[in-house]
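tl;dr need the bound structure. longer version: we got a ligand (uridine-5'-diphosphate-xylopyranose) that a collaborator sent over and nobodys looked at where it sits. i said id run it. heres the input, straight from their email, havent touched it
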Amino acid sequence: MSAEKQPVGVIGVGWVGLVTAACFAELGHPVTARDILPEKVESLSRGETTIHEPGLDELLARNAERLTFTTDMEELLDAARLLFVCVDTPPTVSGDADLSRVRSVVEELRADGDHALVMKSTVPAGTGNSIRRDMPGLSYVSCPEFLKEGTAVKDFMNPDRVVIGADPGEEGAADAVAALYEPLGGEIVRTDVASAEMIKLASNAFLATKISFINEIANVCEEVDADVGEVARGMGLDERIGPKFLKAGVGWGGSCFGKDTIALKKLAGNSGYHFQLLSAVIDVNELQKRRVVQKLKRYLGSLAGSKVALLGLAFKPDTDDMRDAASLVLAARLEGEGAKVAAYDPIAAERARGLMPTVELATSALEALDGADAAVLVTEWPEFAELDWSEAASQMARPLLIDGRNFLDARSLMAAGFEYEGIGVPTAVRQEA
Ligand code: UDX
């Protein structure tokens, strides 16, 4: 018989917490997961999730007997010594990370020398040290998450690296966390708490920088008739640069990049350091979404009274997450210019409804495109590649498409009768201003 697996506690069953709980259960650990929302705990206990994450429902169903969901912190503390804190840390009005949820969790824990807090929530560097000062009897390990929405289960099970930060005297807790991740085979980076916290913030800031960089290159490519896809391919073969996160488009979004880049900028600013590069990265991303409106105006002149269709609303495919989605800024800007906006997304429409109440939410791409003067592809959902674009062209008032993700085949679109323009690609049929 195999050795008994270490019980795991998870505090905060949002997206990170639920994926973490399900994956540790899949690895054979008994998992107790606690959330303060009784409705959430009840529905998870019934086996129902509200999160769209490929593979997650199967893991939860397969490991149901190893998973306990509860609102009761005492039940969790009795069940597990390693407590993974996965509560959210949204930005405050000042842009700093809001640590109030983290703080209220810490107040409920027992500083009995028996439990270890394993911080998965993204917190400013220095948080670990301040919690340790306040709760000397509680071991503290920083173990940031690097999961991507849409591939979170796969990312958890096949990590590039697992970062485990602990300070002197707390190696025992860090060893226990490392043992949980060892079967997954990724490189385990053992370091101090403050460095672990910085690794998380710096990684997200660097990825956001990479995207803003290629978006600026795309904008220059448009001026010199170069193709950003070719430029990225040629750059990416340099091992020092690498091919990933060099896809130009309408900018990054999601729950992490916006929040974490601002949090890092503020963290630096709070100690008197002006992180200039990061300020530019954030500005470029804001402008990148707005450039699409300028592109449309080059074709249509004033947008007042026109109908523009948005294809895709989620911040990226394979998720219904609308946080910081480019579609939100685009819809608002287009409406600000007097356009009527219709939109279609295979799964995010429900979440989008309250966020863009004046946008007409269609139940198919063709319905959104019907009578439109232009379309913008915002999210690269695979079904858009399969769409009958000839039929789409015949239904639109003007078959004009701005491909915000350089996702579709320009030549096929033009053969179907479209005026087509991507981001930083010379196939654009651009009208000079
Ligand atoms: C990100 C980090 O990748 C992950 O490590 C961290 O834990 C959470 O934040 P996620 O927000 O799920 O993950 O999305 P990601 O796949 O990184 O994409 C973020 C945004 O960048 C999306 O809007 C995507 O469309 C955009 N993007 C990504 C580009 O515009 N170009 C690229 O080359 C890559």
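gonna send this back to them w/ a short note. Confidence is low (pLDDT under 50) at residues 429-433.
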